[in-house]
């Protein structure tokens, strides 16, 4: 089995949506990526940090999905990263209510020895210095490095972000962030400019409006599945990234055609994530449901037009 | 050849975008629908009204595209409908600067005798009473009636709109209007509710985010082609509707599978419309360009995933 190395937060989230609110529940980019990637045939490990307030039950939940947590540092007397947010009525925007970095403030990622030869590295949204440090520790050049980031690092750590971007193959970023990073409004132009910063593949996430994959002059689009109800968007982008990276790891194929499939798999898994609070839906998701919804994606997007030449 | 009857404004537009502004140029829903549908193999006619300030050159332009204008009333001493608008920087919203109804205020549509047996009727965005009046004049039940409308009629003529909606097969409407009409935020729920108002097929236009086609439990999605530059969105929705109705007319097939193709053809034609001011791009568009871009739509959306069962 191929190896996927995941770096990302493992955290507590407290979420308010128009449909309800939660206490502190399991969250974090690394968690969502790991759960999503676990639907593929691969070995995965999460590099992250938590405090000793992090429940054993959550650790068990990750290991039950065959996620190696030997790189998940547990800081004695430390507190786990905590984020709290409130979504607006349309669920397309949110206010952050609380961000407590806690143990994340001094996070020094350590890649487990047996994952220093990982085939694919998924750098979840974290300080670009942490992302770079993980790449520094690899003993073998990964077949593919995927990086997710956000506007916060463009505002506060742009030089470090630009540095790590030179070392990656794929960037996943949302539409507004792509515009900010490139200074271009058109996503086609934004992607072209981001290409020149390093990544050969640019994935622009548009939330409920789907995702675009750019590579040189090629472009592919995957819609989000139209749902009766989006309950909680938290983690959808990470679930998408986890599905993308997971499928690439399993298939060992980094062609553009295979990346198209990876984008569909990512969108498919993300469509489940938003149906319940936090990781709830992903925890109980069955492989049969995943396959069935892939059929829906086909029905949603595939057509037959014979083009006369 | 099958017949397509088009009802819609033939007008003057004056447009301001971040890229420039125009004087009074050719515009109107009927115009855009007619130009777009003319890329298919069919007979079409426009029912509309203008004043005698409407230049012969514009009339010639329509007849050169084989559009029958015997139902285009020219009111002596009357002035042509005039709309002026200014787009915001992101081109996703606009302010109406001027609306002069002029001859449109007393428009009494008269369907030419030789189009009272049209196969497909495309009711462009107009007062629902005008749309109903056209249906009243048909001597043979059309194979398909498509209706486009907007929020203005929901605000000012809702009972009349609900009446005409009971007589149509397909409604095309944008996302915000679908929400307004249904009182549902989720587009899946909105489409289901709009179904119950009459139309068996609901097309929800999302501008740069593509279009959704709903029919019972089935749903199909066509993205908008990602473009380097959107120059002027005016008429894109009408061009989409014209391509949709035009393809259905040509193909004489109202199955869901064929409507999928029609949605793609509509999106394809609309992707040209936005590249220049007003009808400029559509006037010069060559069939070869249309076919070539269809290939781009295939590359953009088609993928191969074998789903294990």
Automatic annotation (TrEMBL), chains A, B:
> Which PANTHER family does the entry link to?
RIBOKINASE, SUGAR KINASE
GO CC field: cytosol
Q: Which Pfam families match?
A: PfkB
**Record has DNA-binding as a keyword:** no
Q: Any idea where the Carbohydrate kinase PfkB domain is?
A: 20-281
Q: Which UniProt keywords apply?
A: Kinase, Transferase
Name of the protein:
Sugar kinase
Gene3D superfamilies named in the record: 3.40.1190.20
Q: The organism sits in which domain of life?
A: Bacteria
> Which InterPro entries does its entry note?
Carboh/pur_kinase_PfkB_CS, PfkB_dom, Ribokinase-like
Molecular function via GO:
kinase activity
Q: Is the Kinase keyword given for this protein?
A: yes
């Amino acid at each position: 089995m191929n190896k996927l190395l995941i770096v990302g937060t493992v955290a507590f989230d407290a979420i308010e949506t128009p449909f309800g609110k939660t206490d502190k529940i399991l969250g974090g980019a690394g968690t969502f990526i790991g759960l999503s990637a676990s639907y593929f045939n691969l070995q995965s490990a999460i590099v992250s940090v938590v405090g000793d307030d992090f429940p054993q039950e959550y650790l068990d939940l990750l290991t039950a999905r065959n996620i190696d947590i030997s790189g998940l540092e547990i800081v004695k007397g430390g507190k786990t990263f905590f984020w709290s947010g409130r979504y607006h009525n349309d669920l397309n925007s949110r206010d952050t209510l609380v961000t407590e970095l806690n143990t994340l403030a001094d996070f020094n990622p350590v890649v487990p020895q047996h994952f220093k030869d990982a085939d694919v590295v998924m750098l979840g949204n974290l300080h670009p210095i942490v992302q770079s440090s993980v790449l520094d520790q690899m003993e073998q050049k990964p077949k593919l490095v995927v990086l997710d980031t956000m506007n916060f690092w463009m505002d506060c750590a742009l030089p470090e972000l630009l540095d790590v971007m030179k070392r990656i193959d794929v960037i996943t970023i949302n539409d507004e962030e792509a515009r900010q990073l490139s200074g271009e409004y058109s996503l086609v132009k934004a992607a072209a400019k981001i290409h020149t910063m390093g990544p050969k593949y640019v994935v622009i996430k548009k939330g409920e409006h789907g995702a675009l994959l750019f590579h040189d002059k090629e472009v592919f689009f995957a819609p989000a599945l139209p749902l009766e109800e989006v309950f909680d968007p938290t983690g959808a982008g990470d679930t998408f990234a986890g599905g993308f990276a997971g499928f690439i790891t399993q298939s060992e194929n980094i062609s553009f055609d295979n990346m198209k499939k990876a984008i569909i798999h990512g969108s498919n898994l993300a469509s489940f994530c938003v149906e319940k609070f936090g990781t709830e839906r992903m925890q109980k998701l069955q492989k049969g449901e995943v396959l069935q919804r892939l059929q829906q994606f086909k029905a949603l997007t595939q057509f037959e037009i014979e083009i006369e030449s």
